[in-house]
């Protein structure tokens, strides 16, 4: 292939490589800082509002991450943990959030505090201001669910949903342990049900369970227990913990045995001495157990210990249900499709038609497209691409599960300029750009005003300087409020900050005199897409490419 033909391909690879390297630098820098902040968040002096007499924290429980809060005498006053690492992979709008969880001695959640959020500042502020949002989690225990559907914060739905999911997943992980029945499953008790068992390893398939291995290291079963899922199921006097030996694939209950019970000893003895009851559920699939109707199946309790045996059976049923709910699903089933994602898909189709066909030459249709972008993309959905959003994705990953349509817009915005040479997002998708186009030259005397050429050249460099400032700030942790640098949050007026609103108004007024004034002279997000744009065989590496590479190298060394 001739060198001239390879040139466009190499330039595209070079620019994509710069983008990928910038993402890696941001991710490494942000995650390194997060690790240090996470350790500092659990310092005893920062927990005195929950435990006034705290002197130290004990070692973390390897099963659930809980750390005991200890007083001067070494007595446990309660437990603390954070929603990390479970919450680190739950992306809200632009990033994950981490919360402190405080439990009393009975394992009841008594306090919650937002420690760190990488979501946009305006969305986070809206969640913090909603006291009812955090209050709804208090009183929960591991393995339990709120009595009412979780309340999400209007105007910050993705952010609050991610925080809530992090809390609930942490409680779900803790459901593998129990403060009421703290004793872990032992090899000896498993061998009573399966004599060939020789070793136990933590199960990757069922949380809180153990893979049962024979002498050859072959997996022959999975051992789980009903606690703490069934800790609230009380028989005659108290709850019971039952060992469940599942098949090797984890789908069938092979055998069961009562481990420990707070019920009356005599009633417990009746249950443990009834071989018929103890073998009644053998070879039952988890699906059958989870939906089992005791009366319909004519399952009777142990004579003389009906309530105790009923509690054991109900515990098996609830644990089977929880095991089924925790089973992994395909990636398609993990996606939560929203009405906004359908709207983003429609916007994308409309944008492609306007960009790649002659429809853009029809004035009324072009204006209708722009008006639709402003109404839907700006004021209804309120999900515009910004530096706060894109750098959050770079640092922590994308919200492909919770906001797939928004992610698709981001992919098109980044790759469209590379492969089509067109600014698809800026010209045909961005609500703020659309509103500027609708306002362009709408004032009669504005048509006579022009930006002087020298000033135009200097102002045109400002977006690229701002883009570099964003990269430096995020990588080095300078704390710059990225959302205050752009006007996009102004469309979500109920959460917008003053800076975003001022920028939006100033940019729109300027667009009356200079078409797309903000896009040309102030938008760092547009500058990123412009850097990726490729205009054909005549394109070449320029000063911006080399400056970007130099800045990337310097920051990579400092970060």
Account of the 3D structure:
- The chain is α+β, with helices and mostly antiparallel strands and 559 residues long.
- It folds into three domains: 54-174, no CATH class; 187-325, no CATH class; 333-558, no CATH class.
- The chain is built from 20 helices and eleven strands.
- The chain has helices spanning 3-41, 121-129, 131-135, 157-174, 187-193, 265-272, 275-278, 286-290, 306-325, 339-356, 363-380, 387-396, 404-420, 424-428, 431-439, 453-476, 498-511, 517-521, 524-532, 543-558; strands at 56-57, 67-70, 76-82, 97-103, 109-117, 199-202, 210-213, 219-225, 240-246, 252-261, 284-285.
- The strands form two sheets. A six-stranded antiparallel β-sheet has the order 6-7-8-9-10-11.
- Strand 2 and strand 3 (76-82) form a beta hairpin.
- Helix 1 packs across helix 16 (453-476) and helix 10 runs antiparallel to helix 11.
- The chain is elongated and about 100 Å long.
- The model has no long low-confidence stretch (mean pLDDT 88).
Question: Can you lay out the helices and strands and say which pair or pack?
Answer:
Elements: H1 3-41, E1 56-57, E2 67-70, E3 76-82, E4 97-103, E5 109-117, H2 121-129, H3 131-135, H4 157-174, H5 187-193, E6 199-202, E7 210-213, E8 219-225, E9 240-246, E10 252-261, H6 265-272, H7 275-278, E11 284-285, H8 286-290, H9 306-325, H10 339-356, H11 363-380, H12 387-396, H13 404-420, H14 424-428, H15 431-439, H16 453-476, H17 498-511, H18 517-521, H19 524-532, H20 543-558
Antiparallel strand pairs: 1-2, 2-3, 3-4, 4-5, 6-7, 7-8, 8-9, 9-10, 10-11
Helix pairs in contact: 1-12, 1-16, 1-20, 10-11, 10-13, 11-15, 13-19, 15-17, 16-19, 16-20
């Amino acid at each position: 292939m001739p060198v001239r033909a390879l040139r466009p391909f190499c330039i595209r690879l070079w620019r994509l490589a710069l983008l990928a390297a910038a993402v890696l630098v941001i991710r490494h820098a942000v995650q390194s800082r997060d690790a240090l902040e996470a350790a500092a968040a659990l310092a005893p002096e920062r927990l005195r509002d929950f435990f006034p007499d705290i002197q130290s924290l004990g070692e973390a429980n390897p099963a659930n991450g809980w750390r005991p809060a200890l007083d001067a005498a070494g007595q446990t006053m309660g437990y603390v943990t954070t929603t990390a690492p479970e919450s680190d992979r739950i992306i809200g709008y632009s990033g994950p959030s981490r919360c402190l969880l405080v439990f009393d001695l009975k394992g009841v959640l008594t306090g919650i505090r937002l420690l760190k959020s990488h979501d946009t500042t305006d969305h986070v502020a809206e969640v913090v201001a909603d006291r009812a949002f955090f209050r709804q989690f208090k009183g929960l225990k591991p393995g339990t669910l709120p009595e009412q559907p979780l309340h999400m914060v209007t105007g910050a739905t993705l952010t609050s949903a991610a925080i809530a999911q992090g809390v609930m997943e942490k409680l779900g992980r803790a459901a593998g342990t129990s403060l009421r029945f703290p004793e872990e499953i032992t090899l000896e008790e498993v061998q009573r049900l399966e004599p060939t068992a020789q070793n136990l390893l933590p199960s990757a398939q069922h949380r809180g369970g153990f893979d049962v291995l024979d002498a050859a290291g072959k997996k022959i079963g999975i051992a789980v227990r009903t606690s703490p899922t069934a800790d609230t199921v009380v028989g005659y006097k108290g709850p019971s913990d039952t060992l469940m030996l599942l098949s090797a694939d984890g789908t069938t209950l092979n055998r069961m045995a009562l481990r420990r019970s707070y019920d009356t000893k005599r009633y417990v003895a009746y249950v443990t001495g009834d071989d018929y009851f103890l073998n009644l559920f053998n070879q039952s699939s988890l699906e059958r157990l989870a939906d089992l109707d005791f009366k319909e199946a004519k399952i009777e309790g142990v004579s003389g210990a009906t309530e105790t045996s009923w509690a054991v059976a109900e515990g098996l049923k609830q644990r089977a249900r929880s095991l089924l709910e925790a089973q992994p699903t395909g990636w398609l089933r993990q996606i939560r499709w929203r009405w906004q994602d359908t709207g983003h898909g429609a916007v994308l189709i409309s944008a492609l038609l306007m960009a790649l066909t002659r429809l853009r030459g029809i004035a009324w249709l072009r204006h209708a497209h722009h008006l639709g972008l402003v109404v839907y993309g700006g004021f209804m959905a309120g999900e515009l691409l910004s530096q706060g959003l894109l750098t959050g994705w770079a640092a922590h990953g994308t919200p492909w599960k919770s906001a797939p349509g928004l992610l698709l817009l981001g992919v098109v915005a980044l790759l469209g300029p590379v492969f089509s040479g067109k600014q698809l997002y800026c010209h045909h998708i961005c609500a703020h750009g659309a509103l500027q186009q609708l306002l362009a030259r709408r004032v009669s005397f504005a048509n006579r005003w022009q930006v002087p050429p020298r000033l135009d050249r200097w102002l045109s460099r400002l977006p690229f300087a701002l883009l570099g400032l964003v990269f430096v700030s995020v990588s080095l942790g300078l704390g710059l409020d990225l959302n205050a640098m752009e006007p996009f949050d102004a469309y979500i007026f109920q959460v917008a900050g003053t800076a975003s609103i001022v920028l939006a108004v100033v940019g729109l007024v300027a667009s009356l005199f200079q078409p797309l004034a903000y896009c040309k002279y102030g938008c760092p997000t547009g500058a990123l897409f412009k850097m990726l744009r490729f205009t054909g065989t005549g394109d070449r590496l320029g000063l911006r490419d080399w400056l970007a590479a130099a800045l990337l190298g310097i920051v990579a060394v400092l970060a």
